[in-house]
Structure formats: structure tokens, C-alpha cells
Amino acid sequence: MLAFAGMIAKILGAIYRIPLTNLLGAEGIGIYQLVFPIYSLMLTLSSGGIPTAISRLVSENSTLGEENLVSKVMKSSFVLLFGLGAGAMLIMFMISAPLAELQGNFAIRFGYYVVAPAILIVAISAYFKGWFQGNMNMVPTAVAQIAEQAFKMIFGLLFAYLLLPQGIIYAVVGALIGITLSEFLSMLVMAIIYIAGKGRPIAKSKLDFDCTKNIVRVSLPIMASGLIFPIVQFVDSLLIVNLLVGRGLARDLAISQYGILSAPVNSLINMPIVITLAFAVAIVPIISSKRALRDAVSIKNKSALAVKLSFLIGAPCFVAIFVLAKPLMMILYPSLSASSIDLASSLLMVSSVSVILLSLSQVFTSLMQALGKTVKPTLILLVTAITKITLDIILIMHLGIIGASLSSVISYFLCVLIGWSTMSKLLGKDENLVKNISKILIISVIIGLIIFGLTFALSKWWLVIASVAITPIIYFILVLAAKVFEKEELYSFPFGKQIAKLSEKFNRKK
Fold it and tell me: How many CB atoms sit inside 10 A of residue 61's CB?
């Protein structure tokens, strides 16, 4: 459910970014993206880690029949989330002006003002998400994801368009108003589902200080893990533009290049990653419940399935994005200049491998958190962040904005390498998993060659769309033919029984 909703939400998000980029231009989208790192940082401080902690504690206690502890978890988490959300919102208001001045555009402070209330709203939403996910009910979160993106697209574009005649900065503020409004309406959707009685009702209980301490204990390492990348993004928003200016670029051109990297390029990279993020979120309560029952075999099998699924999505998307980098940019962003299209295509080709790397790092982080090893992913991500910032300084001065993409790829590769090694120590080596991953990679290369042949050998732009439509079907058939997934694993998919029958039928004919 989360994967499907995440895919729909990301498609809506990508569709939204196209007219928004065309409306604001490269400089405008650069200003828009400058607000997001500190906004993401405040979101993580106020609610990051707590939904996962709620999900894990609710799942474990429900499995053991401790309903009284479940109600205490929910009461304590609401008080905690509301307090943190309100505090982070006030901090955002207070630091807006000096932060905007530090970023070199004092007018950006208005953007921080209008997006600050969204921090409290997201914190309240996190309460509902944690409850529903802990009960393994992914539907409300899925519905809220789609609603949020739909509302953001409608109101973001509407306010940006209405305020554009006043100037670019006003149009950017209009788009940010759309974010706050969309988060509020999304939270309202989940609250309505919650009040309507979807899932089990929560028994009344008093606020328990020990329970609050337990939530903080579980969520702090998860929050620390979640804080690292928003901090890196914030440092990037200050570092990349200033390094490019130091290299000799004009500030408005430096902001434009940063905007191209952080909006058109990263939005395409993040589209498939949201699907693997859904697997990462869904695996936490499953592994937590198996851990509570001390079911080591199920933990290993489910963990291997999560890693396979991340490769199943990440590998072909990496190949397709690499091959189709320039055609995608030309079709999606016609308002960008020829030089901007060339730059965006080069950045997208370099960044494309991040699809696999980020997918795996998300799954490894969630698996470690579900297994109670919450400090390890924090340390791994900290090493990744230090590597990223160090490489940024070195590579941007030598290669320009391409250096920022390259530093991300190298640091994410290091993150996956350490994560894989850690998981192998926790669960043991799995030769069958390595064999199946190899099959997925070979099939993905075949798909890449088909896309290349359709798009470039025949030189027809409409074949880009045709190849994107046809190749997933070919990929699906090849994966079934190669027997990448066991019959029992196929049963866990949506329409699993039908897929398993199709796989058996296909392999009998083969």
C-alpha cells in the first residue's frame, strides 16, 4: 500500500515540479530549494524517529498482548510530539531573518515564516502515522501521502501563479504557502480516518513518565539518524552556492545551478526511492514483532526480501535514468535553456547510481532500527555525512556543480558498503541473496540496452515514452523467468497468488 501510494505521490510531486520550475525559472526554483534544508531539519527535530518508535513499540506490545502499554505509548507520544512540534515552529520563526541573511537573500525570510506552521502540523500527523503503522495498517498513511501531494500541487501552483506578478520571491512564498496548507489538509484526512474508528480503539490511560522516557530512548538514535541528512542538505545550501561563487560564478548563476541539481535532478532521483522507502517503513513493525517472538528464521527471510525488493526497484530505475537523462530533461523541462538542459542531463547521469545506493541504505537503516541496533545506523550516516561535506569542498572547487553530484555518489557507496557489512554480521551471509541480486542487475542491463535501442538507435522522441511503457512488462517477465523470488515470497506481494501461478506456468513452458 505504501509503495503504491508513494509511487502515485511521487508522480504527482514530479508533475508538480515541472510547471513550478517552468513558472519560477532556474533562479526561482533555486530560492525555493534553499528553504527546504532547514525546514527538513526542523521536521526531523520535532517528529523524526518518533513515528518509527511508536510503530515499533505498538507492534511489540500488541504482539505480546500488552494493551495497557499500547495506550500509554500513544498518550505519551502525543504530548511529546505536540511539545516538540510547537518548540521547533517557534525556533523557525526566530531564526528566519538571520538565516536568510546568511544565505545571501534576506527576502527568503518570508518563505520561512509561511512554512513554519507546517512543522507543528507534521508533528501531529506523525502521531497518527505511528499508530496506524504499528497496527500494520498502511492505508491511512498511503491516503494521506496522495492527498498531501495533490493539495500541494493545486494550492502551490495557484498561489505561485497569483503572486508571480509581484516578483519571483513572492511566487516562491506562494508555493510555500501551498506546502503548509497541504500538510494541514493531509493531517485532517488522517484525523478523520482515526476518529472514524479505523483500526482498534485506544484504551484511556494516564500520562506515564517511564513510558515517555522509553519513547525518547527508542526514538533518539532514530532521530539522530534522520537528522544527519537534513544537516548535510542545510550545509549544502550554504556551501555549494558559496563554493561556486568562490570559483568565479555570479551568485544568481550559482543559485540557478544549485536549483537545477536540487529540483529537476533530485526529484527524478527521489521518485523510485520513495517506493523502497515504503518497504523500509513497512519492514519495521514486521521485524519488531518477529524479534519480540525471537523468530530468527523469519527475521532473516523478511530482511532478505526487503533487500531484494530494493534492488528490484532501484536497479532498472538507475539504468533507465542513466540512459534517458537528456530526453527526460528535454521533455519534462522545456522552459530551461539549452545550456541548463545539458548541465541537468550531466548531473542526472552522475546521480543516477544514487537510486540503488539510497534505496539500500534506507532498507539497511530500517532493519537495524527494527532489530534494536539504533546507534549503528547513526554512526554509519555520520561517517557518510562527513565524507560528503569533505568531498563537496574538494570536488566542487575542481569540477564545479558536477562535483556535488559525484561527492553524493561516493559517500552513499561508502554508506551501503558499511551497512551491508553490518547486516552480514547481524544476520549472517546469504549466498542465495547475492545470486538473486546478480540476476536482477543482469536483467536491468538488458532493459537498459532495449531502452537505448528504442530511443537512440531509432531517434524518435515518442519512443522515449514507448520504451518507458513497454520495458517494465519485459522486466517483470524476465524476473519471473529467472526465478528471482521464491514461491512463498511471491505470495506476500499484492496479487501474489496470481503472480505465483503465472511464474509456475511460465517456468513449466520454459
Answer: 20
- The C-alpha atoms of residue 168 and residue 170 are separated, in whole angstroms, by 5
Q: How far apart are CA 164 and CA 299, in angstroms?
A: 53
pLDDT > 80? residue 323: yes
Is the pLDDT confidence value at 374 over 50?
yes
Residue-wise burial string across 447-468, b where 16 or more C-beta atoms lie within 10 A, e elsewhere: bbebbbebbeeeeeeebbeebb
Q: Distances from the Cα of 30 to the Cαs of 133, 262, 264, in angstroms?
A: 35, 8, 10
For range 219-225, the mean pLDDT: 70
* Nearest by Cα to 440 from 491, 500, 486, 482: 482
Distance CA 122, CA 130 (A): 12
pLDDT confidence of residue 264? 82
CA separation, residue 113 to residues 226, 251, 370, 506 (Å): 23, 24, 36, 58
**What is the rounded average pLDDT of the residues 472-482?**
86
Phi, psi of 91 (to 5 degrees): -60, -40
- Mean pLDDT, the chain, rounded, equals 81
Give strand ranges (E) for 387-477. Answer: none
**439-465 pLDDT, tens per residue?**
999 999 998 888 887 776 555 666 667
**Contact in structure between 287 and 367 (CB atoms under 8 Å):** yes
The DSSP secondary structure of 418-448, one letter per residue, reads HHHHHHHHHH---HHHHHHHHHHHHHHHHHH
Whole-model pTM: value is 0.70
- Which residue do the cell numbers 511489540 mark? 60
Comparing C-alpha atoms, which of 308, 319, 371 is closest to residue 348? 319
CA-to-CA distance for 388 and 240, rounded, in angstroms? 12
For 70, 125, 183, 509, the CA distances from 199, given in Å and listed in that order, are 13, 16, 23, 44
Give the three cell numbers for residue 452: 537505448
Q: How many CB atoms lie within 10 A of CB 474?
A: 15
Identity at 424, one-letter amino acid code: S
Q: What sections of 337-401 are H helices per DSSP? A: 338-351, 354-370, 375-399
How many other CB atoms sit within 10 Å of the CB of residue 435?
A: 10
Do 31 and 241 meet the contact criterion of CB atoms below 8 Å apart? no
pLDDT number for residue 201: 46
Q: What is the 3-state secondary structure (H, E, C) of 143-170?
A: HHHHHHHHHHHHHHHHHHHHHHHHCHHH
CA distance 306 to 436: 13
pLDDT of residue 484: 81
